[in-house]
Amino acid sequence: MAELTQLESKLAEVIGLAQAAQDTTRKVIKLVDDDEVAAILKRMRAESKETADRGLALAGNLDGKKTAVQKKARETKAEATEMMQTYLGDDADALDGLEFMIMAEAGELGHVEIVSKMNEQVRDKEIAKLAKWALDVQSRHFEQTRQAALKLAAQEDATGPE
Ligand SMILES: [Fe+2]
Questions:
Q1: Average model confidence (pLDDT) across the chain
Q2: How far apart are the C-alpha atoms of 97 and 145, rounded to whole Å?
C-alpha cells in the first residue's frame, strides 16, 4: 500500500474523526430532549457527513493513495468510537453526551487547523479549499456544542442529587 505523507495522514484523520462524529451525534441526539439542541446536532451530523465525503472525494484524486487514506481514516474512526463508547456508557445523559462532544469537536477543529497549517508548505488548492470550509464548520461545531451544554447545564438542578 502507498505510503502517506504527513499531510495526507492528517487529512485521513480529519475524515475518520468526521465519520466518528456522525455516530456520536446520532447517539447524543437520542439522549437530548431539547428540540433546539437536537436540531443543531442534526445539522452537525449532516455537516460531519459532508466533511467525510468531501475528504474522501479529495483522497480519490491523490495518485494511488485512496486506499491508504481510507484505511487510516477507518483506524482513526475506530479509535474515536472506542473513546466515545468508554465515555458514554449506558447511564450517560444528554449533558454527558455534550461534554464528550466538546472534546471531540475540539479534536476535530485542531486536526483541521493542522491540515491547514501543513498545507501551507504544499499549497494544494483542493486541500486548501476543503480546510478553509472545514475550519468554519468546525469552529461553529465547537462553539455550538459548548453553548448547547451550557443551555442544558442551566436547566439542571445544581444542588440536586447526581
Ligand atoms: Fe464537527
A1: 96
A2: 10
What is the whole-number distance in angstroms between the Cα of residue 112 and the centre of ligand 1?
A: 10
Strand, coil or helix: what is 88? coil
Ligand 1 center to residue 39 CA distance, Å?
A: 14
Which domains does the chain show, CATH number per domain? 6-154 (1.20.1260.10)
Q: What is the mean pLDDT of residues 137-157?
A: 97
**Spatial distance between the Cα atoms of 104 and 85, rounded to a whole number of angstroms:** 13
Between CA 44 and CA 67 the distance in angstroms is: 27
> How far, in Å, from the CA of 137 to the mean position of ligand 1?
7
Amino acid symbol at 43: R
> pLDDT digit string (tens) for 3-30?
999 999 999 999 999 999 999 999 999 9
Query: What is the pLDDT, as a whole number, of residue 159?
Result: 95
Instruction: Report whether 76 contacts 17 (CB < 8 A).
Output: yes
